[in-house]
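I hope you will forgive my troubling you with a question about protein structure. The matter concerns a single protein, recorded as an amino acid sequence and a row of backbone structure tokens. Please examine both parts with care and let me know of anything in them that strikes you as inconsistent. Here, with my thanks, is the record as I have it:
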Amino acid sequence: MNTKSSPESQIITIDVLKANDLLCNSNYRYLDVRTEEEFKKGHVDFDDVLNVPNMFNTPAGRVKNPNFLEQVLLVCTKDDHLIVGCQSGVRSVDATVNLLDAGFKDVYNMGGGFLAWVQNGLPVAVVTDGH
């Protein structure tokens, strides 16, 4: 019997309502792994929202951010409680696998991403040029 689990089996996906509850009522931080452009158009509205893109848009299409883990470690530790989200819930799965594989202990993937967040009427912030 193979007891080694694949990274995908380690992922715990929570819905946006559970994510909102954890962000409001516990010490979880929200890690938005969308591009900076997507983040500025609108993001989950909490005081301590982090934006570290997992992918970049290039003329040739999306490419993986080679410094993703290093950039995350500049703004948080492996002991931080994180909820990882993207636009629709695809990039956040990849980012969550990367974080768990790197030794982060408490990471949730937010299913449905920012689109589901908006559809549920949860708080949204927009970055304006003046901020």
Summary: The first helix runs from residue 7 to 10. The chain has one domain: 9-125. The first strand starts at residue 12 and ends at 14.
